[in-house]
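Anyone up for a design puzzle?
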């Protein structure tokens, strides 16, 4: 099909030409005396993306899923007890990863489409008088349902409980897109991947660690190998990695950081809020509902759209892809067939999203959902228009 493909899944996201050019270069000697300047350019700027002033950042040839494992095995002893909130597929998978690693996880069940209740977290921690719970696992932006957790409220709940547990925050679909305040929220481990807000192909796992979390790296007894941070810290301090790094992706990450920091992280968050507001206006104009149960928790990086009863969301997704060259995210687990997801994070602007929404409108109508062509696009344009 001629023209551009609209990649509107919640990740991987569209890759800017600028980043494609940055990655399209010959490999280099990652053990040369020139390499440390390049590595330090990346490692010194990653904390700025999440407003972190103390601690360290690490980059692995991996994904966000790998960083779940890396964060836990480097900071928790075997069999440690953790607390988590399950409110979507990715919070479910974070919990499952911890359990697969042999940790005990107390789970607070929350309806999908809602967000963690800080009062429930506080109550669970207050009840843990002997401080057996060693960590709290939270997904900042639940990619399956399109909702964003108020992390400042979560931190306040942990502080009110006066509990020493580490705070692990999955920021895979929020970091480099939404406001992420590592220091202010008292985050101990932040987890990200290269394929969403960083606008790169999948393949890099990005892990931020507080000083409190780093203190545990040398003392925990959990077996570690590939994800062991001890050799990583030693090599990073010299400007190297303990094994062959994913050079092409690092070239892209270096340029991505330049793009993000030149724009300014507050501006990046504001841009995503503007894009999300327009997409939500389109959904409302179509007469459809979001998976997010309340407007104030709706994500600015993606929107999960609920299809009418009797309609299979997979049909909408397939029509959009085959007829209109638009890729949409599918509903996951208990939301399979019930929702489709529109990604609006990374390299998107009003005009690119308007084109994608046009394809979604036609797919909806073709799937038997009675929408008025132009209604959603028009509502989004009214939201995005900048009057003279």
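Challenge accepted. My sequence:
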């Amino acid at each position: 099909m001629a023209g551009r493909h609209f990649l509107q899944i919640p990740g991987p996201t569209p890759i800017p030409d600028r980043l494609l050019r940055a990655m399209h270069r010959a490999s280099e000697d990652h053990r040369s005396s020139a390499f440390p300047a390049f590595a330090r350019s990346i490692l010194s700027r990653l904390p700025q993306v999440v407003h972190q002033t103390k601690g360290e950042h690490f980059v692995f040839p991996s994904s966000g899923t790998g960083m779940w494992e890396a964060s836990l095995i480097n900071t928790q002893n075997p069999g440690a007890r953790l607390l988590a909130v399950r409110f979507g597929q990715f919070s479910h998978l974070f919990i499952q990863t911890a359990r697969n690693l042999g940790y005990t996880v107390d789970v607070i069940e929350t309806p999908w489409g809602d967000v963690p209740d800080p009062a429930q977290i506080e109550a669970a921690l207050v009840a843990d008088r002997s401080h057996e719970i060693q960590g709290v696992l939270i997904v900042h932006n639940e990619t399956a349902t399109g909702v964003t957790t108020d992390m400042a409220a979560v931190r306040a709940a942990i502080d009110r409980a006066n509990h020493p547990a580490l705070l692990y925050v999955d920021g895979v679909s929020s970091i480099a897109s939404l406001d992420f305040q590592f220091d202010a929220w008292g985050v101990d481990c932040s987890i990200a991947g290269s394929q969403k807000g960083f606008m790169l192909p999948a393949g890099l796992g990005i892990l931020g660690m507080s000083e409190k979390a780093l203190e545990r790296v040398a003392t925990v007894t959990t077996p570690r190998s590939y994800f062991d941070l001890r050799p990583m810290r030693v090599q990073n301090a010299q400007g190297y990695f303990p094994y062959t790094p994913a050079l092409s992706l690092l070239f892209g990450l270096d340029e991505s950081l330049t793009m993000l920091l030149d724009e300014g992280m507050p501006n990046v968050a504001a841009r995503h809020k503007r894009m999300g507001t327009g997409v939500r206006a389109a959904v409302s104009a179509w007469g459809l509902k979001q998976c997010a149960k309340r407007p104030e928790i709706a994500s600015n990086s993606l929107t999960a759209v609920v299809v009418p009863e009797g309609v299979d969301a997979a049909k909408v997704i397939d029509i959009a892809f085959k007829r209109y060259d638009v890729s949409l995210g599918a509903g996951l687990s208990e939301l399979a067939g019930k929702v489709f997801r529109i990604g609006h994070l990374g390299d998107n602007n009003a005009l690119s999203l308007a084109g994608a929404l046009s394809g979604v409108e036609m797919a909806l109508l073709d799937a038997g959902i009675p929408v008025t062509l132009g209604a959603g696009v028009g509502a989004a344009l009214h939201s995005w228009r900048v009057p003279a």
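A detail worth pointing out: The first helix runs from residue 17 to 23.
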